[in-house]
Specification:
The chain has a 5-stranded parallel beta sheet with strand order 2-3-4-1-5. Strands 6-7 form a two-stranded antiparallel ribbon. It is an alpha/beta fold and 380 residues long. It contains 16 helices and 7 strands.
């Protein structure tokens, strides 16, 4: 375990198949403040380089090699000083903490969810409002804590990936994004005390380096009960802990726990002739939090994070229907650069298994196996 954490938990990458696939290029948005700062820095660089080139505009006979060398060296030093003096320009070339302007991050998040996430109107609404509000709040009282719940393949990992990409250009590969997988990083129940110490040290050290660190905990339903409570101080309303503020950090938890309760609500709406879009977050959230808290097979079982109301939002991922599976297939084909064959698209969607057995409404794997099925049908 020690080796696993020291090697960086982000080395374990998982991806939920639901909600879409592929990372489309994102149009770069420029805010006035960022553009102004970068523009001034570029003017400074051009001025410094201009000074360096002035001697070259003089007659060749008047140029002294030593003077020319000193002029160029001085201009280069001035340019470097100016480059470092403008963090926004520096961050064009090197990854920085708080890399993207808050409004740009929120806009990128909204755009990606609108284009790539299917059948999850509650997720789209709650996640965008929560993240946007948190990023724009300069006086947050605690870190943002989101807990994403639903069946496999409904898009939990996919959404956490989109959140990471909206804040940091490198997404899950960013050095400020840290991903933990319960079965990989915390496999042994007898080592739980060691894991607690390592987890606290990892969070403390990384938030000290970057206040806007993002921590993703996958497979919470497989985590040993009690382990996650070790990070409770970091999610609480403390201004500082040992000189470190955690109020700008973001914590995201992913779990299959509570999926039964989510499906129960969705089925009730369907059987009463109401659409899934009629479901509101208030119809699920409280029942979901209670279900997760009392689930003995969940890492949140009787967790102080829930008991002390430190999880800001329990986000339900509804089970995906046949039409959503077809959307996933279409986007995956297009992302690979192939023309969509409607016959193959339908065959793949038909091959998925659906539940309940009689109604066959929801895909039991969401969109998770779409990628593998495409490999079978297309000669890539």
């Amino acid at each position: 375990m020690a080796a696993a954490l020291s090697a960086s938990p982000a080395s374990a990458r998982t991806q939920d198949g639901g909600g879409g696939s592929g990372v489309a290029g994102r149009k770069r948005r420029r805010s006035g403040g960022a553009g102004g700062g970068a523009g001034r820095a570029m003017k400074l660089l051009r001025a410094a380089l201009g000074l360096a080139l002035l001697p070259l505009l003089r007659p060749a006979s008047a140029v002294e090699p030593i003077s020319l060398g000193l002029a160029i060296a001085g201009a280069a030093a001035s340019a470097l000083t100016g480059f470092i003096s403008y963090p926004r320009l520096y961050c064009y070339f090197r990854e920085c903490c708080l890399q993207r302007h808050d409004q740009r991050a929120a806009a990128a998040l909204q755009e990606s969810l609108d284009r790539k996430l299917f059948g999850q109107h509650l997720v789209n609404k709650v996640v965008v409002k929560a993240v946007k509000g948190f990023l724009s709040n300069t006086k947050t009282k605690k870190p943002l804590a989101l807990s994403l719940h639903g069946w496999t393949g409904t898009g939990k990992n996919f959404v956490s990936k989109i959140i990471a990409e909206s804040i940091y250009k490198r997404g899950l590969q960013s050095k400020y994004v840290h991903q933990f997988v319960a079965t990989l990083h915390f496999p042994h129940a007898h080592s739980i005390n060691l894991y607690k110490d390592q987890l606290q040290s990892w969070i403390r050290g990384n938030v000290s380096i970057c206040p806007r660190s993002l921590f993703i905990f996958d497979e919470m339903d497989k985590m040993h009960a009690g382990l996650i409570d070790s990070i409770k101080p970091f999610l609480d309303y403390y201004e500082f802990l040992d000189g470190v503020s955690y109020r700008q950090a973001i914590f995201i938890f992913l779990s299959n726990a509570g999926a039964e309760k989510i499906t129960e609500v969705a089925l009730d709406f369907w059987r009463n002739g109401r659409t899934r879009e009629d479901i509101q977050i208030t119809d699920i959230q409280n029942a979901l939090s209670v279900s997760v808290f009392n689930n003995k097979n969940s890492g949140f079982w009787h967790s102080t994070l829930i008991d002390r109301n430190l999880i800001d939002y329990f986000v339900p991922f509804l089970p995906l229907e046949y039409k959503h599976v077809k959307m996933c297939v279409r986007v995956e084909i297009e992302s690979r650069g192939y023309a969509v064959d409607e016959d193959i698209l339908t065959r793949i969607a038909d091959e998925m298994t659906y539940f309940p057995r009689e109604e066959r409404i929801y895909s039991d794997k969401g969109c998770k196996t779409v990628d593998a099925k495409l490999d079978y049908y297309y000669d890539f």
